[in-house]
Amino acid sequence: xxxxxxxxxxxxxxxxxxxxxxxxxxxxxxxxxxxxxxxxxxxxxxxxxxxxxxxxxxxxxxxxxxxxxxxxxxxxxxxxxxxxxxxxxxxxxxxxxxxxxxxxxxxxxxxxxxxxxxxxxxxxxxxxxxxxxxxxxxxxxxxxxxxxxxxxxxxxxxxxxxxxxxxxxxxxx
Length: 173
What we know:
By secondary structure, this protein is mainly alpha-helical. The protein is 50% helix and 9% strand. The chain has helices at residues 7-12, 15-25, 38-43, 62-66, 78-81, 87-94, 121-133, 135-142, 145-152, 155-172; strands at 31-33, 51-53, 72-74, 99-102, 115-117.
């Protein structure tokens, strides 16, 4: 997934170079760049038949598109990315999609539900090859505890906690 704010993470994390090596080793691999960012698509220097650029997708269509993904990626780089949320990875988890993310504060609390790597091409390549070669195992794992955890984060499941937090804030004033 990408938009203008994700470009530094894509360029500086090593994920694009890692994907290049994965695509060379496994020609059946296809990489999807979501969000219509032509710059990310162009920076991914794999053959055109191994990559696709999906445009911005309407919210109501998003689950249908996301369900076509085998492995989700969440690269981070720089100080801005260290202040991101975990919603992209939560979407992968709710859809039972195995995922890989850069090490960083946004994913510290959920790193046990996926794979977290250092920002270098070799780390991305190694885990992606492992996941591609054992995709069935990773899908089964993603359908277990990560999926249940993601469901437990739904607002409907947590409305009482939210209301109690507001009551606590109100009593402090």
